[in-house]
Each structure stands twice: as C-alpha cells, then as structure tokens.
Amino acid sequence: GLIKNANTQCLNGQPLAQDLAQRLGQAVRLANDANCLALSEAVDGAGAGADVVFAAILGTGTGAGIAVHGRVLTGPNHLAGEWGHNPLPWREKADPWPDCYCGQQGCIEALVSGPALAAEHKLRTGRSLSAAQIALAATQGNAACGLTIERWHHRLARALAHVINLLDPDVIVLGGGLSQVASAYEAVPRLWGQWVFSGGLKDPVRTRLVPSLHGDSSGVRGAAWLWRDGR
C-alpha cells in the first residue's frame, strides 16, 4: 500500500491511496500514468479489440504499461511495463551510455526520452534545443536535427524490437510528447525487423505502431477506467 518509484519523491514510502480515501471519504484506486494510458487505449482507443497492448509514454521519461484482454498487467512487484529501466539492447559504438537516476547506466529512458534526445543533440552540435524544436527543425530540412531524429528512430526501433521479442503485442501505442514525431510511425517499423526474431524482412512484423487515439487525455481517461470490473 506504499508508493514507490514516484517522480514526486515526497510520496515515496507513503500510503497515498489510504490518505486520499480518508480525506475524500470514499474509495480510491491508483495506477501510474503508463498503466492508465494502456488501459484507456486498450478499452476504446488505438488498441481497442487487441488482445495485448503495449503502451509507451515517451516524454520527460520513458515508461510503459501493458494491457491484456482489456486488463492492466501489474505483476507481483507492480513492475510490469517498466521497460525504460532496462538497458538499450544491441548497443552500438555511437550510442552514449549515460548514467540513469535509477542507479544503472544505458537505460532506455536515458537514451530515448525527450531530455536524452536534447542532451545528445547539444553534445554533438553545441546547440541547446528542446526535443520538440529538434523534431520540428528536422521536418524543415535542418540536417543536424535530421540526424538526431534518425539516431532516435534507430534506438527506439531497437528498444521496441526487444519488447516484441519478449511480449509480441498486437499493437504498440505511443503517448507523451515524442509520440507527436510523425516520422517515427514509418521509420521505426521499417527498422525494427532487423532485431525482431521473425526470420528477417521476408517475414514481416505484424505488430502495429500507432499514436494514442486520445492524446494527452488518455491517461486521465484510463484512471476513470480503473473503476471497470475488468481493471
């Protein structure tokens, strides 16, 4: 009943659900934002009707949730979907290997999140731009920004190929600020077949990569869906 791994660090180790229930005088259900995204998109979003939905939030961090037959998968440690704190697979010489706040190095979050994208761009070019600015400039023909986005595509493809090999979801739904990088939905599936254990490009990967149907509202919608019998 205690919070763990919260970005709002003062909540860690605290019985937040119990405290809220006492203050509000009614039952409270809690889930993290990625699990809520997965539930929303699995019930009536971009993954509606799919048996297995992997929903990733790509923004200031990198997290994910998993929904199976419309129910959130949590696991005994409540860690299902903590994809961002595994190391980026199939490491290449060009990949930086930064420290992650979790205490490890080379985590997916430290390499494909918005701040990671911006940090590498600054390291390579000396220019301080946000991830959104880099993505926009890439669409406008800026060569340096285009290369930064290409490297990000490549790393995201490897990270998601790892998910496909392990979970084989019907659909991968992207939320968060970087889900608005439209080029990812063509580039990443074109690349990930190199690492998916499916016999190579002659046996195409059937997993779909799509943006969240409900956008920034999806997490809040998923929180409401926690009150379904199938939560």
Structural write-up:
By secondary structure, the protein is an alpha/beta fold. The chain is about 40% helix and about 10% strand. The protein has eight helices and five strands, in the order H-H-E-E-E-H-H-H-H-E-H-E-H. Strands 3-2-1-4-5 form a five-stranded mixed β-sheet, sandwiched between helices. The longest helix has 25 residues, at about 145-165. The chain starts with 15 loop residues before the first helix and ends in a 6-residue tail after the last helix.
Structure summary, number of beta strands = 5
Q: What string gives the helices and strands in order? A: HHEEEHHHHEHEH
Structural class, from helix and strand content?
Answer: alpha/beta
Which sequence of strands runs across the widest sheet? Answer: 3-2-1-4-5
If you compute it from the alpha carbons, what radius of gyration comes out, rounded to the nearest whole angstrom? 18 Å
β-sheet strand percentage: 5-15%
Helix content: 25-40%
Question: Unreliable stretches, pLDDT < 50, 5 or more residues?
Answer: none
Helices, by number, come to 8
Q: What best-fitting shape do the alpha-carbon axes yield?
A: globular
Largest sheet: 5 strands, mixed
**Average of per-residue pLDDT values:** 93
Kindly report how far apart the N and C termini lie.
17 Å
